[in-house]
Specification:
about 220 residues, alpha/beta, Arc Repressor Mutant, subunit A, 2 domains, five-stranded parallel β-sheet, about 20% strand, globular, binds calcium ion
């Protein structure tokens, strides 16, 4: 899962980026509305954290413009404390949720998990696929109750497939959603990751769809 953070306050931006990375997301950050708007229009994100008070281009304008252009990714806006008019304006402009500053990082993480989950149609933070359970709160995976030790990149890839269970996902799409902008991307490594994940899981849940990509399936439905 890949997140865009648009926040002009350097300390908060850094805190958000490191907390999100620690929670297993690939993260890009922008410090003004123009940069943020550009990234959100050209890159693929699973969710966006958008401050409303931004230099160069106001957060509301950024959001309205994305929605007009048809970018439907979930957006959580950060509003000034107690500003009900900010909240209303944000929701009307197409925000999916809001959080008033100052806030606890834990609450932001929980709200993002809920947004991403709802977007992919999952009702709870634990997603089950046959004998495998992926817990999006703890970023842990078990098979038949036994913990599976995955690297951060392996977890990101598996979590993306799990959130899009039953759909064929191309290597390009996986690459776009598990690396941040600065990462030197190579879609060949995806194959290596998938091989390692299959081995670690010990159960055959990821199907290769020749020429198209990968599909994670419940063994019961395959
Ligand atoms: Ca601001």
């Amino acid at each position: 899962m890949r997140i865009l953070v648009v926040e002009d306050e350097p300390t908060l931006q850094r805190q958000l980026k490191s907390a999100l990375e620690a929670a297993g997301y690939a993260v890009d950050a922008a410090g003004d509305g123009e940069d943020g708007h550009f990234l959100g229009s050209t890159e693929s994100y699973d969710a966006v954290v958008l401050d409303l008070g931004l230099p160069k281009m106001d957060g509301l304008k950024v959001l309205e413009s994305w929605r007009r252009e048809g970018h439907a990714m979930p957006v959580l806006v950060l509003t000034a404390r107690d500003s009900w008019s900010d909240k209303v304006a944000g929701l009307d402009a197409g925000a999916d949720d809001y959080l008033a500053k100052p806030f606890q990082i834990e609450e932001l993480l929980a709200r993002l998990r809920a947004l991403i989950r709802r977007t992919s149609g999952h009702a709870t933070s634990e997603i089950e696929v046959g004998p495998m359970l992926l817990d999006t709160r703890s970023s842990r995976v078990t098979v038949n109750g036994e913990p599976v030790r995955l690297t951060a990149q392996e977890y990101k890839l598996l979590a993306y497939l799990v959130h899009h269970k039953g759909k064929v996902i191309s290597r390009t799409e996986l690459t776009e959603h598990i690396y941040d902008q600065d990462f030197d991307r190579d879609s060949n490594t995806i194959e290596v990751f998938v091989t390692r994940i299959r081995k670690k899981l010990g159960v055959d849940l990821i199907r290769t769809v020749r020429g198209l990509g990968y599909c994670l399936e419940d063994p019961g439905t395959a």
